[in-house]
C-alpha cells in the first residue's frame, strides 16, 4: 500500500502526549515517522571524541506511529485524511478526503 504521509509533509498529532502539535515530517521508516519538535525524548549519550560527540544528556525527536498523525490541510486550517485518485495516464495523486483537492502538484 502506498504511504499517505511522506517526508516534508506538514502533519498534526491527533493522539498521545503531544496531541495538537504541528510539525514537518523529517524521516519515514515504514509505519513510523520522525516529526520535527514532536515526541522529544532525553538520551544519555556516551562521549565519542572520534565522531566529535561531547556526550551527556541530549534531547532529540523520537519516532511516532503513522496512525497518530494526520496531514495538515492549510486551506481549512485543520487535520485531514488522505485518499488517492488515479489519473488518466495511470499516475496516483494524493488528495484531501474532505475537499478532493490535490495534496501535491
Number of separate domains: 1
Radius of gyration: 17 Å
What is the CATH architecture descriptor?
Answer: Roll
CATH fold field value: SH3 type barrels
Strand order of the largest sheet: 6-3-2-1-7-8
Q: What is the number of helical segments per DSSP (H or I, 4+ residues)?
A: 0
Number of strands: 10
* Biggest sheet statistics: 6 strands, antiparallel
The CATH first-level class comes to: Mainly Beta
Oligomeric composition of the shown chains: single chain
What structural category do the secondary elements indicate? mainly beta
Question: What does this entry show, briefly?
Answer:
This protein has strands at 10-13, 22-29, 32-35, 40-45, 56-61, 64-65, 69-73, 78-80, 82-86, 92-96. With 105 residues, it is mostly beta strands. The protein has one domain (10-96): Roll (SH3 type barrels), CATH 2.30.30.30.
Amino acid at each position: 500500500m502506498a504511504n499517505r504521509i511522506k517526508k516534508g509533509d506538514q502533519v498534526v498529532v491527533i493522539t498521545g502526549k503531544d496531541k495538537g502539535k504541528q510539525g514537518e515530517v523529517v524521516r519515514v521508516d515504514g509505519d513510523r515517522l520522525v516529526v520535527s519538535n514532536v515526541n522529544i525524548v532525553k538520551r544519555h549519550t556516551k562521549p565519542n571524541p572520534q565522531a566529535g560527540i561531547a556526550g551527556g544528556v541530549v534531547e532529540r525527536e523520537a519516532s511516532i506511529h503513522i496512525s497518530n498523525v494526520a496531514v495538515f490541510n492549510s486551506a481549512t486550517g485543520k487535520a485531514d485524511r488522505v485518499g488517492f485518485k488515479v489519473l488518466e495516464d495511470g499516475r496516483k495523486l494524493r488528495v484531501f478526503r474532505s475537499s478532493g483537492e490535490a495534496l501535491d502538484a
